[in-house]
Amino acid sequence: MAAAGSALSDLNARAVPDWYHDAKFGIFIHWGAFAIPAFAPRGGSIGEAFSKDYDRAVAMAPYTEWYWNAIKVPGTPSAEFHAENYGDAPYTDFKQPFEEGLKQWDPAAWAEAFRDAGARYVVLVTKHHDGLCLWPSEVANRHQKDWTTRRDLVGELAAAVRAVGLRFGVYYSGGIDWTFNRRPMRTLGDFIASTPGGDYPAYAMAQVRELIDRYEPSVLWNDISWPTRPGPLYRLFADYYRAVPEGVVNDRWVAGSLQRDLLKFPPMRRYVDRKFKAALSKLSDEDSKGIIPPPVPHSDFRTPEYAAFAEIQVKKWEATRGMSHSFGFNRNDSEADYASAETLIHDFIDAVSRNGNLLLNVGPRATDAGIPGEQLRRLKQFGAWLRANGDAIYGTRPWTQSDGETECGQAVRFTAAPGRVNLIFKGPISSTQLVVKHLSIMGTALRLGDGSPVTLQRRGPDLLLTFAGPCSDPVGTAVAVEVSGDTANLGVPPV
Questions:
Q1: What class of enzyme is it (predicted)?
Q2: Helices 200-215 and 230-243 sit at what angle, rounded to 10 degrees?
Q3: CATH number of the domain residue 314 falls in
Q4: Which residues contact 327 (CB under 8 A, 6 or more apart)?
Q5: Cut 0.90: pTM above it
Q6: Does residue 372 sit within a domain?
Q7: Helix (H, G, I), strand (E, B), or coil: what is residue 396?
């Protein structure tokens, strides 16, 4: 225990690398055999599935990447869809058509699209809950033979994104693998208790070490939990940081414990499920939309999912979400199921002003390895806005406050860099003049979109801004104010 405590102290003494603070925007990629059926129920968020249909929430989730589990639960939309379209074919049959679709894959085109969107890093799902590895792993899975791709998708994409100047990271599902534990999951208790034992901890550890050794990822992004006890986990972190000195790890590494082991017993799981169900049923619609994983003893950043923090956080964080309710491609999604580019960029601005990044997911098709048009359009809109306003985003830190408001009720967000405070107005500005309430900074100001000057004038406790012309960008307008003295101080030091 003393050794584990000392190792943890050493890990927590390490600062988050500047590149990760500066990058702000990453692309997540959920892609695999689940993109062949590409099916999940439409209509609600992951949080709403748990709050409104708890007893079978995991099988009713809007995530297509959870398809294998969902088809094991009779009566679910996924089970009915599978029976109608694939009969009694096993999920593992989807690997062959997935690999057929790879003949059309162009990793360089993906990388260019991500770069043009303004992303600074890319995180690829290397193994999701279905256990299919997107690299030819040398770590044998005794429970499912031939369950890796023949092509090294991880290596090819890593090379492609690095070739255009982006950093590359890997996602790994350490907490769930349905080739090791095939019991259907319905509730949150089932979900937490499903981390496999037996030979799985050694398997997961060997695979993650293989990913580190082969690809030296800048981001090590685990999901759900981790199958070993804390000691081996902390050694993994230390070895990773030695191999990749500027690497970062996320927060989804809840290590094995007696409490989690007890959930494998049905009476304990039923007790916990009753508690979860009662608590989730009391959440408001807004609070039930997403998930915020619990803090862990060591991480470089936290990862709210379809959720966000409402205030500046001292701890670095990264909001993660799909463009629709699913991460994996869903054949049922129409344009109406996708969040608008304006909504996604506004959420991104909110996150950056509060010490967060955004990891925005892309869910490619499997049939032709293409990125759906709805998603590409949103990536292009991100790129256009960031090309005009990126100086208010990249390399910034939170200011002394994140949120402001004009006299007309328009939302304003603040970011800071040495000698500069940025004001980002969400949505179009309808007049060449506006007043930001309770703001007294002064300095030389310009509009980032076109470099035109902005005149500042104090009006009591408020600040009047006068623009040289109309600001009609429907997403938002950024203004940079060159300041001096305490006004330029950053609100939250990097950790």
A1: hydrolase
A2: 10
A3: 3.20.20.80
A4: 28, 30, 63, 64, 65, 361, 363
A5: yes
A6: yes
A7: coil
Do 317 and 458 lie in a common domain?
no
Altogether, the residues listed in the chain come to a count of: 495
Any domain includes 494: no
Distance CA 77, CA 59 (A): 9
DSSP 291: B
What whole-number distance in Å separates Cα of residue 424 and Cα of residue 5? 43
What is the Cα–Cα distance from 266 to 53, expressed in whole angstroms? 20
Which pLDDT tens digit goes with each residue over 190-221? 999 999 999 999 999 999 999 999 999 999 99
CA distance 342 to 381: 9
Pairing state between β 462-467 and 433-436: antiparallel
Count of domains for the chain? 2
| Measured CA distances, 58 to 16, 22, 54, 299, 363 (Å) | 34, 36, 8, 26, 20
**Which among 361, 392, 423 is the end of a domain?**
392
Q: Tokens 């297509």, residue?
A: 64
- Examine the fold and report which residue of 392, 427, 458 is the final residue of a domain before the chain moves on: 392
Strand ranges, E, within 210-368: 219-223, 248-249, 317-321, 356-362
Locate the DSSP E strands across 198-288: 219-223, 248-249
Structural domain for 249, as ranges: 2-392
Name the token pair of 248. 């970062």
Find, among 136, 160, 130, 211, the residue nearest to 27 by Cα.
160
Residue 495 pLDDT more than 80? Answer: no
Beta bridge partner(s), residue 455: 466
